[in-house]
From TrEMBL:
Lineage: Bacteria, Pseudomonadati, Bacteroidota, Flavobacteriia, Flavobacteriales
PANTHER family: BLR7131 PROTEIN, L,D-TRANSPEPTIDASE HI_1667-RELATED
Gene3D superfamilies according to UniProt: L,D-transpeptidase catalytic domain-like (2.40.440.10), PGBD-like superfamily/PGBD (1.10.101.10)
Source domain of life: Bacteria
Keyword annotations: Cell shape, Cell wall biogenesis/degradation, Peptidoglycan synthesis, Transferase
Annotated L,D-TPase catalytic domain residues: 302-480
Bilayer-spanning residue ranges: none
Protein's UniProt name: Peptidoglycan-binding protein
Active site: 430 (proton donor/acceptor), 449 (nucleophile)
Family membership: Belongs to the YkuD family.
InterPro entries: LD-transpeptidase_YkuD-like (IPR052905), LD_TPept_cat_dom (IPR005490), LD_TPept_scaffold_dom (IPR045380), Peptidoglycan-bd-like (IPR002477), PGBD-like_sf (IPR036365), PGBDSf (IPR036366), Transpep_catalytic_dom (IPR038063)
One MF term in the entry's GO annotations: transferase activity
Record GO biological process: cell wall organization; peptidoglycan biosynthetic process; regulation of cell shape
């Protein structure tokens, strides 16, 4: 009987167990939220679950599912951040700021249920805001097939709860943003462009180039644009059609800010840049801010950074820019990919194997016209067994079964050197046999790889830095080049490679823009505001 009685008691206890859903365990690294004496309300977890956010569940689990934003100062600070998020290129409506402000105005009259709703909305939208600041609103991998950027992850709750408990919410926004100078220059650019009035200048139309002392009706609106952007000083009520010396100097200043040849000649590229309105330039800045949030927050100690639309490469070592080089990048049809990687190997006297795209679009059509096309370019055809195939025996109906290899030399398509780094696009940095391309202002001319001006000097610099036990003098490198034999040299010093894309920034309080060579800016802005 005693055993039976004990069994009945146990059954009753088990039957009376609380049926409430189990709380999600707090991550070990996540601190508990310290609540003060302000009004707190217990939250029905169904309201949290409605947001379908694990982060939100974890946050409120740290407060034992109680409201946390009872402190007026904390609420006011968050609301002010969300309201002025446009100053950082974000969209206040993404964070339901109007709805939150309406709830705040009625805070003393809110029922427990409405207070819970307000509290959850405040947390959800503030965390969304911080997420957008840290890694952007959109996912580049879903937008672009040739962008290989590692996903940025962070423990948002851990950072938020620590700032909440220490009353240091004011520091969290700075901590979540990029520390890169370019990002800061973009924020400054947004601040600068907001100081300009709305422009109502007509579209500039000119079918011909305009040179110094020409008379052209388009010059009137050109002068208005130069005055608007402060490249020229003066009054707008007495402008003539004459392209005078003052306007000539202003045009050169404008061209330099836009990465154009600063020759004072007003051609199609300059007209196109002049026709950008304030609104379009602001959209461009906002699109660039989003892109910079996709990139690394922390840079390696030593790195190469390539800005694709600026056609430039900077070598940075211990925060000091040690080399700057002009580069040639891919065309709009054969785009240079956006990637982060690590430099591995310098190859002197490289061979070049014709890639499938160039084979299909360039080589095969040329071979059909002239069987000696490849021989003239010092390219040998090999079959699958490695045997040399004479051009006369080449099967034009099945060109993909062959391998096409260009011998090393000054006129090799890769030039005298290439630098290898891991990537999924079969691209690398290299010299070129079209060395005159670097004289052009528009250098979107390659098949996807990045071509470097004066590459042997660059190779000498990084190899000297890599291995102090070997002297990589110009004479030593020249002697390797003279052999015309392929030589691979491991880069011992650690260099990261950042091959990125940005078309706007500021410098010395001046707005700087570059042509959007891959037409990414307008589409990205539209998606951000969708």
């Amino acid at each position: 009987m005693k055993k039976l009685s004990l069994l009945l008691v146990l059954c009753i206890l088990i039957g009376c167990k609380d049926d409430k859903p189990k709380a999600i365990p707090v991550k070990k690294s996540q601190p508990a939220i310290i609540l003060t004496d302000e009004r707190t309300v217990q939250i029905d977890t169904a309201k949290i679950n409605a947001f379908k956010s694990e982060t939100l569940k974890q946050f409120y689990n740290s407060s034992d599912n109680k409201t946390v934003w009872g402190n007026l100062k904390k609420r006011t600070y968050i609301l002010s951040l969300l309201k002025k998020s446009d100053e950082l290129g974000l969209n206040p409506s993404d964070y339901k700021i109007e709805k939150l402000e309406k709830l705040e105005k009625r805070i003393g009259l809110l029922s427990d249920s409405d207070l819970v709703t307000y509290d959850i909305l405040l947390t959800y939208n503030f965390e969304l805001y911080l997420t957008h600041l840290y890694k952007g609103k959109l996912d580049p991998k879903k937008l672009y097939g040739n962008w290989d950027l590692a996903e940025k992850t962070f423990d948002i709750n851990n950072a938020l709860i620590k700032a909440f408990n220490k009353n240091k919410l004011d520091s969290i926004v700075d901590n979540f943003q990029s520390k890169a100078d370019t990002y800061k220059q973009l924020l400054k650019a947004l601040e600068i462009i907001n100081t300009f009035p709305e422009d109502k200048i007509g579209t500039i139309e000119s079918a011909e180039k305009i040179t110094l002392h020409d008379t052209n009706p388009a010059v009137v609106n050109i002068k208005k644009r130069l005055l608007f952007w402060k490249d020229m000083s003066g009054r707008s009520d007495s402008l003539t059609k004459i392209y005078d010396q003052k306007t000539f100097e202003a045009i050169k200043k404008f061209q330099e800010r836009h990465g154009l040849a600063a020759d004072g000649v007003i051609g199609a590229g300059t007209i196109s840049a002049l026709n950008f309105s304030k609104a379009k330039r602001k959209e461009q800045i906002i699109a660039n801010l989003e892109r910079w949030r996709w990139y690394n927050n922390e840079f390696a100690k030593n790195y190469f950074i390539i800005n694709i639309p600026d056609y430039s490469l900077n070598v940075v070592e211990s925060k000091d820019t040690t080399l700057v080089r002009n580069v040639v990048v891919g065309t709009s049809k054969r785009r240079t990919p956006v990637i982060t990687s690590k430099l591995k190997t310098v190859v002197f006297n490289p061979t070049w194997t014709v890639p499938p795209t160039i084979l299909k679009e360039d080589v095969v059509p040329a071979m059909k016209r002239n069987r000696n096309y490849l021989a003239k370019k010092n390219i040998t055809i090999y079959d699958s067994s490695g045997n040399v195939v004479e051009p006369s025996a080449w099967n034009e109906k099945n060109p993909g079964k062959y391998r096409y290899v260009q011998s090393p030399g000054y006129n090799n398509s890769l030039g005298l050197m290439k630098i290898l780094f891991p990537n999924h696009h079969s691209v690398y940095l290299h010299d070129t046999n079209h060395r005159n391309y670097f004289e052009r202002s528009n250098r979107s001319l390659s098949s996807g790889c990045v071509r470097i001006e004066n590459p042997l000097e660059l190779a000498q610099h990084i190899l000297d830095s890599s291995d102090q036990s070997v002297s990589w003098s110009k004479e030593k490198i020249d002697s390797i080049i003279e052999t015309k034999k392929t030589v691979n040299i491991k880069i011992r010093k650690k260099y990261a490679l950042y091959q990125w894309y940005w078309t706007a920034w500021s410098k010395k309080n001046q707005l700087i823009f570059r042509a959007d060579i891959y037409n990414l800016d307008s589409d990205l802005y539209a998606k951000l505001r969708n």
